[in-house]
Automatic annotation (TrEMBL):
<dbReference type="InterPro" id="IPR023696">
    <property type="entry name" value="Ureohydrolase_dom_sf"/>
</dbReference>
<dbReference type="GO" id="GO:0040029">
    <property type="term" value="P:epigenetic regulation of gene expression"/>
</dbReference>
<comment type="pathway">
    <text>Ketone degradation; acetoin degradation.</text>
</comment>
<keyword id="KW-0006">Acetoin catabolism</keyword>
<dbReference type="InterPro" id="IPR037138">
    <property type="entry name" value="His_deacetylse_dom_sf"/>
</dbReference>
<feature type="domain" description="Histone deacetylase">
    <location>
        <begin position="22"/>
        <end position="313"/>
    </location>
</feature>
<comment type="similarity">
    <text>Belongs to the histone deacetylase family.</text>
</comment>
<protein>
    <recommendedName>
        <fullName>Acetoin utilization protein AcuC</fullName>
    </recommendedName>
</protein>
<dbReference type="InterPro" id="IPR000286">
    <property type="entry name" value="HDACs"/>
</dbReference>
<dbReference type="InterPro" id="IPR023801">
    <property type="entry name" value="His_deacetylse_dom"/>
</dbReference>
<dbReference type="Pfam" id="PF00850">
    <property type="entry name" value="Hist_deacetyl"/>
</dbReference>
<dbReference type="GO" id="GO:0004407">
    <property type="term" value="F:histone deacetylase activity"/>
</dbReference>
<dbReference type="InterPro" id="IPR003085">
    <property type="entry name" value="AcuC"/>
</dbReference>
<dbReference type="GO" id="GO:0045150">
    <property type="term" value="P:acetoin catabolic process"/>
</dbReference>
Length: 387
């Protein structure tokens, strides 16, 4: 489908580092880029650089007082609990403003590249920091780069932006920033707030005119159930909304091996979700697609393979799941982590799912979650909630 994609990259993007014991280890991004390079994925895309977001740019979504507080933390390395620094999730570290502003700038660079028509698709694999709030750091996130990309598009006069978040955690920061703005449709598929941080994202959170959509899935949901939920909610809403641009967040912490959550997807199921979003970008948004990374804390077995599949999908040349990982990459994994690397790009799954055309099962917790969302928001978009 795509013949024009840009990967925004700078080695300094790995400087976003909360320390050696923190789950959000930058080695996951380093290993992703190395694997994508070794498998020839980066040969099929444009590579583009980035500059840090300026204070004025950050202020499109963040309070100026918060930006100044982050800069003080950055200069001193000292905690400031009033803005969320000094917690286990968000330790203070010297240079945090500069590292965070560069990630934000990378998502801005992706948005600019797609907006000006340089490319159809662009991705900031180091981005996706969707929990950051207007005035506080939260959930490993300092500056909310997906929200910043959306806000920048709106400032250019774009009329409709859709945001789809497939991270296992609710995209609460992005939802908060656009909750009352009907120009932005936020859709988040995530583990139920009953069992997972941040404790928000119920079906009843619908924004204005149905601008917020939340599919809260039960712990234990695997490929078939997740893909059924996605298919039952995302395509109908995007087709009705007809966004000018599609922005997506691709946290891969929905995987069964992720240590921080409780869904049971495979890399193969995640790859199918990326392909579905690619198709929807072309069908509903004229191919204008801006993608980011996100969560993902199984640093070797999951993140590099999942996001290499994402980069390959964006390039228009998806990888055969049976593709072996390269020996040079396996050696890098052993050197950098001491872990045993995966041998191929698949978990050996061939996910299949049934759509809702045959009806739904009210005894199935996944179907109950899907129908709760459809009943909450479909009528607000002129859609029939019943399959």
């Amino acid at each position: 489908m795509s013949q024009s994609a840009r990967v925004i990259w700078d080695d300094a993007l790995t400087s976003y580092d909360f320390g050696p014991a923190h789950p959000l280890a930058p080695v996951r991004v380093e290993l992703t880029m190395a694997l994508a390079r070794d498998l020839g994925v980066l040969d099929k895309v444009e590579m583009g650089g980035c500059e840090p977001a300026t204070d004025d740019e950050l202020a499109m979504v963040h309070d100026p007082a918060y930006i100044e507080a982050v800069k003080r933390v950055s200069a001193s390395g000292r905690a400031d609990l009033s803005v969320g620094f000094g917690t286990t999730d968000n330790p203070a570290f010297a240079g945090v403003h500069e590292a965070s502003a560069l990630i934000a700038g990378a998502s801005l660079a992706a948005a600019r590249a797609v907006y000006d028509g340089s490319v159809e698709h662009a991705v900031n694999i180091a981005g996706g920091l969707h929990h950051a709030m207007p005035g506080a750091a939260s959930g490993f996130c300092v500056y909310n780069d997906p929200a910043l990309a959306i806000a920048w598009l709106l400032r250019q006069g774009v009329e409709r932006v859709a945001y789809v978040d497939v991270d296992v955690h609710h995209g609460d920061g992005v939802q908060t920033m656009f909750y009352d703005d009907p120009r932005v449709l936020t859709i988040s598929l995530h583990e139920s707030p009953i069992t997972l941080f941040p404790g928000t994202g119920s079906a009843g959170e619908t924004g204005v005119q149905g601008s917020a959509v939340n599919v809260a899935l039960p712990a234990g949901c695997g490929d078939a159930g997740w893909l059924r939920a996605f298919d039952s909610v995302v395509p109908p809403l995007l087709r009705e909304f007809r966004p000018d641009f599609l922005v997506t967040q691709h946290g891969c912490d929905s995987h069964a091996l992720d240590p921080l959550a409780h869904l049971m997807l495979s890399v193969d199921g995640q790859r199918m979700a990326y392909a579905a979003l690619h198709r929807l970008a072309h069908e509903t948004a004229g191919g204008r697609w801006i993608a980011t990374g996100g969560g993902g804390y199984e640093l070797v077995q999951v993140v590099p393979r999942a996001w290499t599949h994402l980069l390959a999908e964006l390039s228009g040349y998806p990888l055969d799941p049976a593709t072996p990982t390269s020996e040079s990459w396996r050696q890098l994994v052993r050197e950098r982590t001491g872990e045993v690397p995966p041998l191929t790009m698949t978990d050996g799954r061939s996910p299949e799912f049934q759509d809702l055309s045959g009806g739904y099962d009210p005894a199935d917790p996944i179907d109950r979650a899907v129908m709760a969302t459809r009943h909450a928001v479909f009528p607000l978009h002129g859609l029939d909630p019943m399959p």
